[in-house]
Write a structure and sequence with these properties.
The structure holds two protein chains of two kinds. Chain A is of the alpha+beta class. Chain A is 24% helix and 18% strand. In chain A, a hairpin with a 2-residue loop joins strand 13 and strand 14. In chain A, helix 1 packs antiparallel against helix 13 and helix 7 crosses helix 8. Chain B is α+β, with helices and mostly antiparallel strands. Chain B folds into two domains: 274 residues; 85 residues, no CATH class. Chain B has 15 helices and 13 strands. In chain B, the strands form four sheets. A five-stranded antiparallel β-sheet of chain B has the order 6-8-9-7-12. In chain B, helix 5 packs across helix 14, helix 7 crosses helix 8 and helix 8 packs across helix 10. The longest helix of chain B is centred in the middle third of the chain and has 28 residues. Classes of the chains: A alpha+beta, B alpha+beta. Chains A and B meet through helix 4, helix 5, helix 10, helix 12 and strand 14 of A and helix 5, helix 9, helix 11 and helix 14 of B. The structure holds protoporphyrin IX containing FE. The site of protoporphyrin IX containing FE has 26 residues of chain A, from strand 9, helix 9, strand 12 and helix 12.
Chain lengths: 480, 441
C-alpha cells in the first residue's frame, strides 16, 4: 500500500472537520503578487496538515487558474495543469457539459461568473466556535492590505443541526473510503478507493499515477518539490494536492416544500405525503434512513447506513427512484447501461468525489424538522450549500457525475428527468429536464414542471496544493 | 419491407486542389444545419437516422507511405440499401453533385441515376453496430408519441379514485382503450411484428456460417472413419477457417513484440476544438481515423476481425451508442471509426475504457491503430492503459465537418423502451407480465 505524506497534505482532504461547526471561505484577489507571495510563505506555516487533528481551528488555501498565473509560474509549468482547471468552470462549452445554463448560467452568478471580479484564491478557515473563527479571520485579514491581497467576498457557513442541509435532510453520510487511510473495515469493496483518486502523486483506480502539474528541475533550484512519478527530470507540483471544486448553490426551501405539498397526494395526511415525495427525491428520509433499507418510513437503526446497493435490492426503483439525488449522484451497483451489477460497480468506481460541503444562511426553522419547515412563513434569508469536493481528475470525476448522471435527463432510461434537487430544470427546443418519475405499482407517478429548487450563485475550479507546493509557489521569483 | 438497421459508407479520394472548396461547401451545410440547408438537406430523407460528412486529411503511415485526403459520406439507415441510396440521390441530385464533384471519379452528367451509380461504386464495406434494430426513422417518432400519449393518460388516471386498486391487466386494458380511441394512434393498434426477411438479413449470414462450420467440423471428425471427397472438402474448409484465424494471430503476436510507437499528445487547444463542437444536449457524434501500426499483418488481421465482428454484430453491446461502425480505407492501411452516442464523447469514452470486458473486445479492433496501447495476443493489455488509450482516441479524432441526427430529444434507452411498450401493448399477457410491462412507464 502507498504511504501518504500526511504532513504535506492539507488536512481538509482527509477530514471534513465535523468538530468545527463554523467556517468562512474568503474569496480573494491578488493586487501585488510579490507581496502576496510573502504572505503565502508565512501562511504555509499555519496551514493545517493532514497529520494533525486540530481542536481549535484549521486553515487551508486553494488557488484559481488566474491566481496561479499571477504567481509567475512558467508558462510551460502552467500548461501542465489539467485542461478543465485552466479553462475554468465558466468556459462556454463547459456550461453545457455541467448544465450551467438558463437560470444557472454563470452570467447570473454573484462570484466566479463571467461578469464577476476574478477570484485568485480562497482562504478556507474552520473553527470550533464563532469567537475563534473571528479571531483567526481578523488575524488573516489584517495582513491583507499590506500583503497585496484584496478580500472580494467572504462566504460564511455553519453546521446546521443534526448534520442536516436546508431542505431538512441529513447530509454528509456517504463518502468514498480512501484505502490508505484504512478507516472503515466494513466498507464494501466498491466504496474503497486508492488515494490517487483524490490526492495527486499517488496511484489511482487504474493503478496509474494521475496527471499532475510539474515543473522542470531547474525551475526548482531550492529543491522544494519531490520528483515527478510520471516524468523524468521533472518535479511534481501537484503531489499531495488536489483539485477543489466549489459551487455555491442557493436553496429555495419554501419552493421545495410548497411543490411537495401541492403535488403529493399519495398519503391521506398531506404533510406525510410531502415528506414521502421529498424522500423519494433525495433517496433518503429526512433523518438519513436510506429508502432502500426502509422504503415506507424512517428507521432509527439506519440513519447513517451506507451499506446498500440497487441492482438486487431495487432494480426498477420501486423503493428508491432511479432519478433520486443519491441514486444518480452515485448509482453504486446499478447502471441500466450495464448487464450486471459487478460491471456497474466497475464503472462507477471511476466516478467518485470526496465531498466537503457546508451549509450557509440561517435555517427556515431551528430544528429543520420538515413538518415545521412546511408550516414556516417564507422569508428572504439567503441560504444554501457551499458545495465543495475534491477530485484528482476533474473531468472523470466531478464533471462526469455532474454531466452524465445529474444533468443528463436520460440517465437510467429516464426521459425528461434531471436531478430533482440540483438539476437545471427547463423546457426548450423539445428538450425537457423538469420531470421527476417515481416508479410504483401498479403504475408510476410522474411529477412535472419542477421549479428551480436550487440555483447556482457562484463557483470555480481551484488547485489545492500540498504544503511544499505552496511554499514553492510562494518562492517563485518575481518578474524583473 | 425490411427494417434492418445498416450503415452506408462512401469513401472517395478528393481531387487535387479541391480540398478547400469541399471544406467550404461542407461548412455551409454545417452552418445552415444538415437537416435543411441550401445544398443538401438530409431532413428530406425518410430512411436516414444519422449521417456524417467528413474529410480525412492526408496522413502518412508509420513506414512513410502517403495516405491521400479522402471524403467520407456515411449514413445509418433502415431498410434496403439500394432504396436508401436511390432516395438520397433522387431527393436532390444537384445537391449531392455539389458535394461529390470534388471527389475523384465523379461523373460529368448529373442525373439521379448517375449519382446513384457513383455512390454505389464508391461504397465500401463497413462493420456496423446499432443499439436499436428494426426501428425505422418513422417508428422512432411515432413510438415516442405513443408512449407520451399513454404517459399523459396515466398522469390523469393516477388521480382517479380506485385506480390504484385495479389489476395490472385492467390498467393495460384501459390503456388499450385510450390508444384505440385516439385516431392519431390508429397505426399502433395492430400488434407489432418484425418481418422474417429483416431478421434473416441481420442473422442469416451468421446462421449460414454456423451451418458451414458445423458441417465442416463434423466432416473433420468423419474423415478419420469415412474418407471421401465430401468429408475431405469439409475438412479443408474447417482447417482453412482455423488457419485464417490462427496464422494471422500468431503473426500478429510476432508483430506485437515490436517497440511501441506512441502518438503525440494532442494539445489542450486541439481537444477543446473537438469537444466544443459537442453542443447537443442529448446525443453527439465522433469520428476517429488514423493509420495502423507498422507491419503488413495489421491490415490483414483487422480485415479478418472486422468481417467476424460483422457476422456477430447483432450480439454485440456497447452502452449508450445509437450506432457505431468501423472500416478500413486506403488499402486497409487506415482505420475509421464513427459513432453516434448519448451525451458527450468524454462520457462515452468511459463506457469503453472502464469495463474490462469491453476493453478486451475493443483491443481486437483499436489495438491495431497507431498510438493505441500495445496488446498481447490481440486482446490482453491495450486499453487497460487508460491514459494511453484516451490519448490515442483524442489524437486520432477528427473534426467532423457535418453530422446529421434525427429526433433530437430521444435517447438510446428511450428508443428501446418505447419499442418494448409498443410490443407489449397488444396480445395475451398474464397479470405478472402486465405488471412488468407497466414498469416500462
Ligand atoms: C443544494 C445542493 C445539494 C443538496 C441539498 C444535496 C443533498 C444531499 C443529501 C441530503 C444527500 C444524502 C446524504 C448522503 O448520502 O451523504 C446527498 C448525497 C450526495 N450528494 Fe448531494 N446535495 C446537493 C448538491 C450536490 C452536488 C452539486 C453534487 C455533485 C455534483 C452532489 C453529490 C452528492 C453525492 C455524490 C452524494 C452521495 C450519494 C451516495 O453515495 O449515495 N450533491 N446530497
Amino acid at each position: 500500500m502507498q504511504l501518504l505524506e500526511k504532513e504535506d497534505i492539507q488536512g481538509l482532504i482527509v477530514r471534513g472537520y465535523s468538530n468545527f461547526p463554523e467556517a468562512s471561505f474568503v474569496l480573494c484577489g491578488i493586487t501585488n503578487p510579490a507581496k502576496a507571495k510573502k504572505y503565502f510563505a508565512r501562511l504555509a506555516e499555519r496551514i493545517t496538515p493532514a497529520s494533525q487533528k486540530p481542536d481549535k481551528r484549521a486553515i487551508h488555501i486553494a488557488f484559481s487558474n488566474e491566481g496561479i498565473k499571477l504567481l509567475n509560474l512558467s508558462s510551460s509549468a502552467y500548461a501542465t495543469f489539467s485542461r478543465q482547471f485552466k479553462e475554468g468552470m465558466t468556459e462556454k462549452n463547459r456550461q453545457l457539459v455541467l448544465g450551467d445554463i438558463e437560470y444557472n448560467a454563470p452570467e447570473h452568478w454573484e462570484w466566479g461568473g463571467t461578469r464577476s471580479e476574478q477570484i485568485h484564491f480562497i482562504l478556507m478557515i474552520y473553527a470550533k466556535d464563532k469567537t475563534v473563527l473571528n479571531l483567526v479571520m481578523e488575524g488573516e485579514k489584517n495582513n491583507f492590505d499590506q500583503t497585496g491581497i484584496k478580500e472580494i467576498k467572504t462566504l460564511d457557513s455553519f453546521a446546521l443541526p443534526e448534520q442536516k442541509e436546508h431542505f431538512g435532510f441529513r447530509d454528509g453520510i456517504s463518502q468514498p473510503n480512501i484505502e490508505e487511510l484504512g478507516k472503515d473495515n466494513n466498507a464494501p469493496e466498491w466504496n474503497v478507493l486508492p488515494s490517487g483518486e483524490f490526492i495527486l502523486g499517488y496511484k489511482n483506480v487504474y493503478d496509474q499515477y494521475p496527471e499532475s502539474p510539474f515543473v522542470s528541475r531547474n525551475e526548482d533550484p531550492e529543491n522544494l518539490l519531490p520528483a515527478s512519478t510520471l516524468y523524468d527530470k521533472k518535479k511534481d507540483l501537484g503531489r499531495n494536492g488536489s483539485y477543489l471544486i466549489f459551487r455555491q448553490l442557493s436553496q429555495d426551501v419554501h419552493a421545495f416544500w410548497k411543490y411537495l405539498m401541492e403535488n403529493s397526494n399519495e398519503k391521506d395526511d398531506p404533510t406525510e405525503a410531502a415528506i414521502c415525495l421529498g424522500a423519494k427525491m433525495v433517496g433518503r428520509w429526512p433523518d438519513g434512513t436510506p429508502l432502500i433499507k426502509s422504503p415506507d418510513e424512517p428507521n432509527d437503526k439506519f440513519t447513517t447506513d451506507n451499506q446498500f446497493g440497487y441492482w438486487k435490492e431495487d432494480f426498477h426503483g420501486l423503493k428508491c427512484p432511479v432519478g433520486s439525488h443519491i441514486r444518480r449522484s452515485n448509482p453504486r451497483d446499478w447502471l441500466l447501461t450495464e448487464k450486471t451489477h459487478e460491471e456497474s460497480m466497475q464503472m462507477i468506481r471511476k466516478h467518485r468525489i470526496l465531498r466537503r460541503g457546508r451549509a450557509y444562511g440561517l435555517p427556515m426553522t431551528d430544528t429543520l424538522d420538515p413538518e415545521k419547515i412546511m408550516k414556516a412563513e417564507n422569508d428572504t434569508e439567503a441560504r444554501g450549500l457551499h458545495f465543495i469536493c475534491f477530485s484528482g481528475d476533474i473531468i472523470r470525476q466531478f464533471e462526469f457525475i455532474q454531466n452524465a448522471w445529474i444533468r443528463f435527463p436520460k440517465f437510467g432510461g429516464l426521459y425528461d428527468d434531471s436531478d430533482p434537487l440540483i438539476g437545471t430544470h427547463y423546457q426548450k427546443n423539445g428538450i425537457k429536464t423538469d420531470a421527476f418519475t417515481v416508479p410504483a405499482e401498479p403504475v408510476r407517478r410522474r411529477y412535472k414542471n419542477l421549479p428551480e429548487f436550487t440555483t447556482l450563485r457562484g463557483g470555480g475550479y481551484f488547485f489545492f496544493p500540498g504544503i511544499r507546493a505552496l511554499r514553492y509557489l510562494a518562492s517563485l521569483p518575481n518578474p524583473s | 419491407m425490411t427494417t434492418t438497421h445498416n450503415g452506408l459508407a462512401i469513401s472517395a479520394r478528393i481531387k487535387e486542389g479541391h480540398h478547400e472548396a469541399l471544406i467550404k461547401t461542407l461548412s455551409q451545410i454545417n452552418d445552415q444545419g444538415a437537416a435543411h440547408n441550401e445544398i443538401y438537406s438530409f431532413g428530406d430523407s425518410k430512411t436516414t437516422h444519422f449521417a456524417t460528412l467528413a474529410i480525412l486529411p492526408e496522413e502518412r503511415t508509420l513506414s512513410g507511405k502517403s495516405l491521400p485526403s479522402r471524403f467520407l459520406f456515411l449514413t445509418s439507415y433502415t431498410g434496403d440499401r439500394k432504396k436508401h441510396v436511390r432516395e438520397l440521390a433522387e431527393n436532390n441530385p444537384e445537391g449531392l453533385a455539389e458535394i461529390f464533384k470534388h471527389c475523384e471519379g465523379f461523373p460529368s452528367t448529373i442525373t439521379p441515376g448517375s449519382i446513384y451509380r457513383y455512390m454505389r461504386k464508391y461504397t465500401t464495406i463497413n462493420t456496423f453496430y446499432t443499439g436499436f434494430q428494426y426501428v425505422t426513422y418513422e417508428d422512432v417518432g411515432k413510438e415516442y408519441e405513443l408512449r407520451e400519449a399513454i404517459e399523459n393518460y396515466l398522469d390523469e388516471a393516477c388521480n382517479e379514485p380506485g385506480f390504484k386498486n385495479k389489476s395490472a391487466l385492467e390498467i393495460r386494458k384501459s390503456i388499450q382503450d385510450v390508444v384505440k380511441s385516439d385516431p392519431g394512434l390508429s397505426w399502433s393498434t395492430k400488434p407489432y411484428k418484425r418481418s422474417l426477411r429483416s431478421y434473416l438479413k441481420l442473422l442469416g449470414p451468421l446462421y449460414i456460417l454456423g451451418v458451414i462450420l458445423g458441417v465442416s467440423l463434423i466432416c473433420c471428425v468423419l474423415v478419420f472413419f469415412w474418407a471421401n471427397v465430401f468429408t475431405w472438402i469439409g475438412t479443408m474448409i474447417f482447417l482453412s477457417f482455423v488457419g485464417i484465424l490462427v496464422v494471422p494471430l500468431v503473426l500478429l503476436r510476432i508483430n506485437e513484440s515490436r517497440p511501441f510507437e506512441s502518438v503525440a499528445k494532442p494539445t489542450d487547444k486541439r481537444i477543446y476544438d473537438i469537444v466544443s463542437r459537442e453542443k447537443y444536449p442529448i446525443k453527439n457524434e465522433m469520428t476517429v481515423a488514423g493509420p495502423l501500426k507498422r507491419g503488413w499483418i495489421r491490415p490483414v488481421f483487422l480485415f479478418i476481425i472486422l468481417r467476424l465482428v460483422w457476422f456477430v454484430r447483432a450480439f454485440a453491446y456497447i452502452p449508450t451508442v445509437h450506432t457505431a461502425r468501423w472500416f478500413q480505407v486506403d488499402g486497409g492501411k487506415r482505420i475509421v471509426f464513427i459513432a453516434y452516442f448519448d451525451n458527450t464523447s468524454e462520457a462515452y469514452a468511459h463506457d469503453f475504457v472502464d469495463s474490462d470486458k469491453r476493453i478486451r473486445n475493443l483491443n481486437l479492433i483499436f489495438g491495431n491503430g497507431h498510438g493505441f496501447p500495445p496488446t498481447k495476443w490481440a486482446v490482453i493489455g491495450g486499453g487497460r492503459d487508460r491514459e494511453k488509450y484516451i490519448t490515442a482516441v483524442r489524437a486520432q479524432q477528427k473534426i467532423t465537418n457535418v453530422w446529421y441526427y434525427t429526433h433530437c430529444h430521444v435517447g438510446i434507452l428511450n428508443i428501446n423502451n418505447n419499442r418494448a411498450i409498443r410490443k407489449g401493448l397488444w396480445g395475451d399477457m398474464s397479470e405478472n407480465e402486465a405488471r412488468q410491462w407497466l414498469l416500462l412507464f
